[in-house]
Each structure stands twice: as C-alpha cells, then as structure tokens.
Amino acid sequence: MRGASALEDVLADHPAQRVQVFLVWEPVLWSDVAPPRDSVLALLRDANARQYWDPEKLFSSAWVASTQADPAAWRLEEGLTADNVVWDVVALYPAGSRWEEHLPVPQFVGYPVVEAIGDLRREFAALADRP
To answer: What CA–CA distance (Å, rounded) separates 7 from 17?
Structure first.
C-alpha cells in the first residue's frame, strides 16, 4: 500500500507527463483475501491510473514467462521460475509498448516500490526533459 502512495506522489509531481498507469493487486500476503477496499484504491487517485484485482496472479505468471523467454533482454542472469510471484514491483515502459506474445521489456524496473521510487522519479525527470 505504501508503494501506491509513493507512486501517487511521483505522478502528482509530474502532472503534465502523459502516462498510463496500471496497478495490479494480487493476493500475496495472508491478509490479501479479497480485492482492495476503496480506501486502499484511493491511495492512487491519478486520472491516468487503472487498478485491477488479479486473484489468480495471471499478470505475475505472464511476467515470469516473459523473463523466461528472454532473460538477457530483461537483464537477468536467468529467468524467474514458475514458483516466483512478482509483486511490489514498478516498471516503466517506453511509449507505444504493446503486450503481444510476451510482456515488452521495461526500460526501468524497481522493487520494492517504496525503495525504487527515487529511481523512478529520475526516470520521470528524464522523460520530461525529452522533446
């Protein structure tokens, strides 16, 4: 939840930035028994944000499969295994990225989100400096 708040702060600092935000909630901890409550969803209020509940962790599985398909592109020594659950991660994709057979390779990945926010801020600042 702190990651959603931290992401909201980054977006608030860059209101002119044209971005689409997808936040995927999934059951990872013992307390994650149901979709997030409205009070949790409200932590990310940016108009460009869409939030999803993924009880089957399908997005996590797609992320793992994508890294397994091309670990070098994802800058990993090896792909994640099917036992891995991808969560508390922030990824930034170049404009025009499309999810086809596999997820596109992000230009930035950081985790846990609250620890990666400083790096994400720098990525946003670099985007703002580009024409």
So the answer is: 13
